[in-house]
Amino acid sequence: MLYLDNFLESNHPFSDSELPLKFKFRLMNTIMGIIVFTAILFGTLHYVGVAPLGNFHANMNFAFAAVNLLLIVWLRRNKEAYEWVVTLMLLSSLANFTSALIKVTHDEFRIMWFYIALFLAFFAGGMVHGYAIAALSIIIIFISNTFFDLHLSTLAITTAITGIIILTITVQAYTRKMLDLEQALLTLNSTLHSKVESAVEEVRQKDKMMLQQARLAQMGEMIAMIAHQWRQPLSSISAISAKLQLTIAIERGIDMAALTHELQNIDNRVHLLSNTIDDFRNFYNINNKKSAFDLSKTIQQTIEVLKPATENAQITLHYENSLSLFVNSLEGELLQVVMNLIKNAIDVLKECETDRTIWIRTYQNSRNVFISVEDSGGGIKPEIIERIFDPYFSTKKEKNGMGLGLYMSQLIIQKHCQGSLEVENTSRGAHFSICLPL
Q: What is 289-437's CATH number, 2.40.400.10, 3.40.50.720, 3.30.565.10, 3.90.550.10?
């Protein structure tokens, strides 16, 4: 379907630096469209007896319309043909206006058509076209008056030529000012484009910096959790070692069965330490490539990592999942977001004296996968819930909260995973919902 914008711009794309050319294309196609319509109309009106123009000039109108119709088609096929199209449109206009000047002698205002051609030349073509059409118009009027009876007085001819000269001087001054404005616009667009690129790059670098800050903060929390989980096995190993040393010192020897048993205890605790490292390693094994993975297993892994924290805080965690719920996304980054939501819920529930529960649920519909994390902490205050995802906004300032966790979580879900992260208050507490495309 041919839309108006498509027609006026000849179906060509225009960059920001080509806005003046785009305007000229729209102007030229408008002018040529009007020419085709009016020329065919005047020619038809003559042959139906409404507007007697003479057969010659009526046929000239049809030819005028045909030429401009071909120029419209040419301009759609070749963007670089603009200057030629303008030149041919103006020459065909002069030919038709000359025919009217000579043949339609009963029209006393026919000489005004040359003024219209002059305007079109300056606005559509520029200074060179304007001067050329002005000169040609004067020559045509002078020669036509010499060899044909135009039924115009010498005063009318002199006034017409003088008018063309005055109009040329006036319009060229205005055109020069338009060219200056056009150049200023191009310079402004170029500068603005550079400033926008610079601003976008600055925002991109800022996001990277904040992401790095958030990851460093999260890494500190991870190290604290590792230290917490290592404390008991290391204490056990230290106690076993001291026991063995004491036994050797007192008894001047040790039973091999007892030694084997204690060494086995040490080995079991070393395995526990190694497994703890494996559990945490995936959180910082960031893979920037999307892959298909079982979301339920990823959530379960996160729960296992945070299990000591929930047990120490006496928090009950319920996980309702859809089995083998596969999603194609960034597993490492999604895992960090889910862990951050659960950790926030843990921090809130530590302040609660009664019910301490976290509900996690994964489910899907025909288009999306959802992860919901809800706590029984009473919810977020209404006056701050709209700011909860703002950078550097934290409700845990007294606990050295940076205010980047939820901001970066939303950024990761939206920009890296092409999903959404939203929050609302329920009757039980805060409910965070992650939506990811299947």
A: 3.30.565.10
